[in-house]
Amino acid sequence: MADARDEIDALIGQFSRLPGLGPRSARRMVLHLLQRRDQALRPLVMALDRVAQTAQPCTRCGNIATAPICDICADPKRATGEICVVEDVADLWAMERGQVFTGRYHVLGGTLSALDAVGPDDLHIPQLLERIVSEGIREVILALGATVDGQTTAHYIAESVEQTGVILSALAQGVPVGGELDFLDDGTIGAALRSRRAF
Amino acid sequence: MADARDEIDALIGQFSRLPGLGPRSARRMVLHLLQRRDQALRPLVMALDRVAQTAQPCTRCGNIATAPICDICADPKRATGEICVVEDVADLWAMERGQVFTGRYHVLGGTLSALDAVGPDDLHIPQLLERIVSEGIREVILALGATVDGQTTAHYIAESVEQTGVILSALAQGVPVGGELDFLDDGTIGAALRSRRAF
Ligand SMILES: [Zn+2]
Ligand SMILES: [Zn+2]
C-alpha cells in the first residue's frame, strides 16, 4: 500500500500529536473523516483553513483574534479599568463562559516554572506593566491556577506591579459550585474555611 | 466577540462531532492548533486537504484508495484466492496490522442489524458473491465481530455463498494473546475451551 496509506498515516500522525489524542483515537478520527468526505472531511478542511488564514494573537492582550486587536480589546464597553490576568487563552475562554467579568484580559502565555525553565522574560509581564499605565488600569485580577507555578507567578506579578499603585486581587479559592466536600482535598477545604463569609 | 469566535466555535463544533471527542476536548484541540498556526494548524490543513482530494472507496473491495482500485486489489501477489470479509475499513486496517493475511478483502460497510434497520441490501453482499465467481475465490474468511449482529451477518453470508461451493471459515475465538483468564467473560472462556487444541 504505497501512496494512499503514506498520506493517511501522515495525517494520523498529525492528529495523534494533538492534546488528548493517541495513535488509536487519531486513527478512528481519520477513518471517520475518510468515510464521510463530503459531510465531514471537506467542511472541516474549509473551517480549519478559514481559521488558519485569519487567526492571530491580539497584539494587546494575547487573546486569539482575526485582527491585530481582538474583539474584547476593541469593545469600548469593556474599558472598565480592570484587567484579568490569565495563563493562556483556554483560561480566558473559561472566564468568558463564566459571563461575570466585564473588563479586559492579559494572557501571560504560561506560568513561571523552574522545572521548565520559564522565566519572567518568557511571559508577557512587561506588557502588563505598560498596559496598567497606558490604559489607566485601577485593578488587576489574578486568575491563575492554584498550583505551585501559578502561585509563584502571582507573587512575582504582585511584586512587579507594586510600584504602579494598582489594586491587586485574586480569584477566591473555595468549594466549587456543585462540589461535594467529601471529594475535595484538604487544601481546598482549608482555603474555603479561611475565606468563609457571613451567611 | 463577533466574527472570530463564530468561526472558531464552528470549528470546535465540527471537531466535537468526531468519534471520541466532546465539546471540551474539541475546544482544547482547536486552541492547541490556533496557538501553533505554522507548526500544527497549516500542516494539518494541507494533509487533510490532500487526503480529501485523493481518497475514495475502492470500487472492488471498499477499502480506502487513491485510485478506483486500491493498492491491495491492484497487487498481483495478493491474488491468493482468499477473501477476508470485514465489517469496515477500521477492521481491514486491524487485519493488515496483524501482518498474517496475504489475500484480499471485502468491506461489508456494516453488519445486519434489526435495531438499526440494516438489511442485506444495505451491505455489499451481492458484490461479494460476484467476486467469488469472477476472481475464482476458493476460501472466504469471515472476520466479523463476536457480537449478535456480527454473528447474524456471518450466518447470512454463509447461506448466501453456499451455492458457490466456496470454503467458508471464520476467525477463531479464544483467549487474546496476553489476556488473563481472570478478566475474560464466560463466553470467551467457553469458546476457547470448545476450540481447544492438542498441546
Ligand atoms: Zn485583545
Ligand atoms: Zn480494493
Plain-language structure description:
2 copies of one chain form a homodimer. Chain A has 199 residues and is α/β, with parallel strands linked by helices. Chain A has 2 domains: 53 residues, Orthogonal Bundle (Helicase, Ruva Protein, domain 3); 107 residues, Dna Topoisomerase Vi A Subunit, Chain: A, domain 2, CATH 3.40.1360.10. Chain A has 8 helices and 6 strands. In chain A, strands 4-3-5-6 form a 4-stranded parallel sheet. A two-stranded antiparallel ribbon of chain A has the order 1-2. In chain A, β5, α7 and β6 form a beta-alpha-beta unit. In chain A, α1 packs across α2. The longest helix of chain A has 18 residues. Chain A is globular and about 65 Å long. The termini of chain A are far apart. At the A-B interface, α1, α2, α3, β2 and α5 of A face α1, α2, α3, β2 and α5 of B.
Structural class of chain A, by secondary structure, is: alpha/beta
User: In the CATH classification, which architecture of the largest domain in chain A applies?
Assistant: 3-Layer(aba) Sandwich
Amount of beta strand of chain A: 5-15%
Bound molecules: zinc ion
Number of helices of chain A: 8
Largest interface, with counts of residues having CB < 8 Å to the other chain, equals:
A-B, 54 and 54 residues
Question: CATH class of the largest domain in chain A, anyone?
Answer: Alpha Beta
The global form of chain A is: globular
- Fraction of residues in H or I helices of chain A: 40-55%
Radius of gyration of chain A: 21 Å
The profile of the biggest β sheet of chain A is:
4 strands, parallel
The overall strand count of chain A is 6
CATH third-tier fold name of the largest domain in chain A: Dna Topoisomerase Vi A Subunit, Chain: A, domain 2
Pick out the low-confidence regions of chain A.
none
Number of domains of chain A: 2
Oligomeric form: homodimer
Terminal CA distance of chain A: 70 Å
Strand order of the largest sheet of chain A: 4-3-5-6
- Mean residue pLDDT of chain A: 88
Question: What is the string of SSEs of chain A from the N terminus onward?
Answer: HHHEEHEHEHEHEH
Family (chains A, B): Belongs to the RecR family.
InterPro entries (chains A, B): DNA_Rcmb_RecR, Rcmb_RecR, Rcmb_RecR_Znf, TOPRIM_dom, TOPRIM_RecR
Zinc finger (C4-type) (chains A, B): 58-73
GO molecular function (chains A, B): DNA binding; zinc ion binding
